[in-house]
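Minutes, project check-in
Item: structure for the 228-residue chain
Input as provided by the requester:
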Amino acid sequence: MDRLGGEHHVDLHDAAVVRFEDCRPVRSFPSWKGQRNYPGLWWSATVGRHVGYESWLERDHAMLLDFDSQVTGFASQPMWLFWMSGGRRRSHAPDWFARRSDGTGLVVDCRPLDRIKPRDAEAFEATERACRENGWEFRLVGAPDAVQLANVRWLAGYRHPRHRVAAVVDRLLDVFDRETPLRVGAERVGDPIAVLPVLFHLLWSGQLVTDLSVVLGEYALIRRAEAA
C-alpha cells in the first residue's frame, strides 16, 4: 500500500525497489473491550510521525528500530506477502519493514518464541524465504533484553527535537570528548535539571554513547561517539 492508501500488486522481485518504509499499513489496528493485546501509536523520531502497533511487544521493537542509528525509516505492516501452500493461498503481513542507511531492507516479525504455532511458523518461514530472495534481512524477535529495553525506554522520553538545545549540546560534546561519568559531566556543564534532558537526547540520537547492557545511572561512563 502506498502513502495515499492505494493498493498495488507486484511480483516479489519487483517489490525490491518499493519504498515500504513510506507506506501505510495494509491492515487496521482495532481495539475492543476485553482485548488481550494492546494496540496503539508510537511517535517515531526517525520518521517524524506516528506508526501503529498491535501489541506491547511490537511497540518495544518499534522503539528499538527508532533508536537504531542505522535505520533511516520504518513502517508497520506495509505489505502483504502471498504464497501457495497445500493448494491453498496463504498471506502474511510482516510487523515491520525498516530501511537502513546503506539502502538495505530489514523485515521484522514479533512473536513470543513460546507462542509460535505451526501455522505461524509456516508464515515466518515463507517470509524469510521472500526476504532472502529480495536481499532483505529477516528477523523473528521475541522479548528484548530487559535492561537494554529499560534504558532505551528512558532515553525515548527525550527523543523529541525540542530537547536539542544547541548551546548545551556543544558543551556536552566538549565535556564528553573523553569518557566521563554521567553525573560528573552533566555538572561540569551546568544545572543538571537543565542539562540532563539534553544529555539523554544526545544518547538517544547517538552523538553520545554508553554501555546500555547495564542500568543507566549517574556513574555510567559516557563518551562522544566520534571518540568511540
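Outcome recorded: The mean pLDDT is 93.
No further action items on this chain.
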